Amino acid sequence: MITHVGVVGAGTMGVGVSQAFAARGFRTTLVDTSDETLDRARAAIVRDRRFAGMLGSASPCAPQEVMERLSFTTKLEGLADAGFVVENVTENMEIKRDLYRALEDVLPGECVIGANTSAIPITRLGSFTRRADRVIGTHFMNPAHLKPLVEVIRALHTSERTLRTTLELLRAIGKDSAVVEDSPGFVTNRVLMLTLNEAICLLDEGVAAAEEIDRLFVRCFGHAMGPLATADLIGLDTVLYSLEVLLREFNDPKYRPSTLLRRYVDGGLLGRKSGRGFFTYDT
């Protein structure tokens, strides 16, 4: 029975994933490389839980209980007794490879690694370990603690036991699952990244303003937010990395990132997390 869950990477996704587990009674350890990043994550989780309390969230425990179940560390050794680890680090193959090899020396033998990647094939991530049968894709949507469904990716070597363990764990935190086979970008991001990129191209070409592009998708198609606001929420750097992975994996020019997207990322305009992307946000 899994009682301790690790979350590696304390960015936007790590903040959401860690509180999703802690709010459902799991002892949860959030790991990142710097205390500064962990301090920001802690503050973000406190803010989220207070906000949820104000809205009368259906979370089965009080905000203080959530924080008591969470621990924050820069040491992977904090995961030495974890039964499941969700990996959320940046979409960089070299960084992920080094992390998976380091986790190999720390995690218990039966521990499952859930890769929360945007586009990198899960089979390739599994090849960085000696436990490819215990590596599976767990693609949480942002914000991870609120979105009800997780895209679960079965890699080439993922065992039925690993799949069953993952689905049971997600059910335990109130998440539904959609199981798909391994392919770059999976289902969601293979479609979504094309949409976001094309919307950015339209903006760059002057076909319409950002507000009008998004309003068309919200008002005409019933989307909760438009593609440019969605890109800002995901993080423009993550969108760029994802498109680069898709372009490299499929060798298809339809995935070529917009010049405007590259310019925004080069200029540090990353969306909500930087305070400005296609729209401006309070930080």
From TrEMBL:
InterPro entries: 3-OHacyl-CoA_DH, 3-OHacyl-CoA_DH_NAD-bd, 3HC_DH_C, 6-PGluconate_DH-like_C_sf, 6PGD_dom2, NAD(P)-bd_dom_sf. Residues 4-182 form the 3-hydroxyacyl-CoA dehydrogenase NAD binding domain. Gene3D superfamilies: N-(1-d-carboxylethyl)-l-norvaline Dehydrogenase, domain 2 (1.10.1040.10), NAD(P)-binding Rossmann-like Domain (3.40.50.720). Residues 185-281 form the 3-hydroxyacyl-CoA dehydrogenase C-terminal domain. It comes from the Bacteria. It is an enzyme of class 1 (oxidoreductase). GO terms for molecular function: (3S)-3-hydroxyacyl-CoA dehydrogenase (NAD+) activity. Keywords: Oxidoreductase. Pathway: Lipid metabolism; butanoate metabolism. Its EC number is 1.1.1.35. PANTHER family: 3-HYDROXYACYL-COA DEHYDROGENASE FAMILY PROTEIN, 3-HYDROXYBUTYRYL-COA DEHYDROGENASE. Belongs to the 3-hydroxyacyl-CoA dehydrogenase family. This is 3-hydroxyacyl-CoA dehydrogenase family protein.
